[in-house]
Amino acid sequence: MMNHIRNVICFKKKSRQETDPYSHSKHGDLVLFEIPEGFCKVEQYWINEPYVYIYILTKIQTKETLYYVGEPGLSSFERMLLEKINVNLQDILTEEEALYKDRQKKEKLEEHAIELLYQYSNSLEEQTVYKILYYLNRNFLGYEKIDALLKDPMIEDISCDGVNIPIFLYHRKYGNIKTNIQFDEIDLNSFVIKLCQKGRKHISFGSPLVNATLPDGSRIQATLGHDVTTRGSSFTIRRFKEVPLTPIDLINFNTVSVEQMAYLWLAVENNKSLLIAGGTASGKTSTLNSISLFIPPASKVVTIEDTRELTLYHDNWIAGVTREPFAKGESEINMFDLLISALRQRPEYIIVGEVRGSEARTLFQAMSTGHTTYSTIHAGDIQDVINRLENEPINVPHAMLKALDIITVQIQITIKGKKSRRCQQLVEITGLDPRTGNIRINDMFKWNPQDDCFEKGGESYVMNNIMHEKGWSMDQLLAEIDNRKAVLRYMVKNNIRDYKSFANIIQAYYIDPKDVMAKLEMA
């Protein structure tokens, strides 16, 4: 932004004195901040230098932590100027919106703004220009007051609970934390409407509840007015990771062990169906997304979700998202519709973001007819999974459950004062008991909370099944598992955790495992 602003300012002022590039030594700080009385500073870092600085503060008396967003301060004259330009730009940018791409919109915004600035005043300080352009970019192209929050990679969730209530965050380092940002009623209603529009959804007082996906992939749940949420309009944003977690991240976090991940790698490669269970924020979708990297590169994959969360790096991938009717008379496209459509597309892998209703029966029918399927479900343990699947509103026939191969249960817990995620249990479905008709399960891995480690059970039904399908001996099976553990340990040791490098190594192993193992031995 700096270079473009500089060029435009110099162009507009070519008959006046040339404008120098912004520098801290010449123009001073844009963000001025004094620690409030009764607080002490814990940490500070830039989000958008030199415009946005984040301060982590602690209240000395209560030890409460505060997330403070520092932005350029405006004088009364600068505030008045910003309001004037803001009004005048509304009509100009609305007319031009369809003509330009995002980068061009940014350039046009700055050009129009500078033109207006020098119509209002011939003697503006350069610092004033930079401040006003920052706020115009933030408000027109960004997310207004919460723009900095959506740019901070340390934030997982953003929650606005109502009118004149501070926004709360979930910070990866500090957990739940209060901010210095809040909205009055008029601004909050306007912002919620704008937020939903960015997610291509309509919200109104007649239809005050919306689930949507923002352009960066983050999930938003919003309400408008006091009818549904009595403290006023609200929104919750669950941040989307631009760079998704890989199996190496899950191993580093101790969410799973190397042995578990090698097991899942072999299971995914050999088309074993999997269901990931857990409570809210237990990391179900992150695990689902990460193990999808084990799907062979050329396989055809179809994903089905209510709101887009999954990110696959396969060329042969169809990403399906449900659609609510935009207007009266338009048809809804739900997960059941997308799943029926997916079955006609001859996929090798079907991934459903979360099963909640009738689509689960079709998913299990797909499993029964040989399709490999992965999904998540809200449940606290294995018995909860079975109960949810067999009862309203899902109602999967009891006999169909044997088509599922593996169930994992994830939990979120606090370890040494830090919230962590663990794969509490991994079980195999081995069929139905002929006498009782009950589902038979085989415990493969369990998390031991005392030692924070994973304990392996007995013989694996799934691995033995793969061994017979492949025509391997037991020694060959054990060698394959050991090879995969060696590859994963190599990536952990060398911190190879970005998805591209990870996917390249997995693909190389599929093409020529002997060559990969030989290179590991030489490394």
Q: What's the SSE blueprint?
A:
Elements: H1 2-12, H2 24-27, E1 39-48, E2 52-59, E3 65-70, H3 76-96, H4 102-120, H5 126-141, H6 147-151, E4 155-160, E5 168-171, E6 175-179, H7 185-198, E7 209-213, E8 219-223, E9 234-238, H8 247-252, H9 258-269, E10 274-278, H10 284-291, E11 301-305, E12 317-321, H11 335-343, E13 349-352, H12 359-368, E14 372-378, H13 382-390, E15 406-415, E16 418-432, E17 439-448, E18 453-456, H14 461-470, H15 474-493, H16 499-511, H17 513-522
Parallel strand pairs: 3-6, 10-14, 10-15, 11-12, 11-13, 13-14
Antiparallel strand pairs: 1-2, 2-3, 4-5, 4-9, 5-6, 7-8, 8-9, 15-16, 16-17, 17-18
Structural write-up:
- By secondary structure, this protein is α/β, with parallel strands linked by helices.
- The protein has three domains: 145 residues, Beta-Lactamase, CATH 3.30.450.380; 83 residues, Beta-Lactamase (2-Layer Sandwich); 276 residues, 3-Layer(aba) Sandwich (Rossmann fold).
- Helix content is 38%, strand content 23%.
- It is built from 17 helices and 18 strands.
- The strands form two sheets. It has a nine-stranded mixed beta sheet. The chain has a nine-stranded mixed beta sheet with strand order 12-11-13-14-10-15-16-17-18, with helices on both faces.
- Helix 4 packs across helix 5 and helix 9 packs across helix 15.
- The longest helix is centred in the N-terminal third of the chain and has 21 residues.
- It is globular and about 85 Å long.
- The relative contact order is 0.07.
- About 3% of the residues have low confidence.
- Keywords: Cell projection, Cilium, Flagellum.
- This is Flagella-like protein FlaI.
- Belongs to the GSP E family.
- It holds the Pfam family PilB3_N.
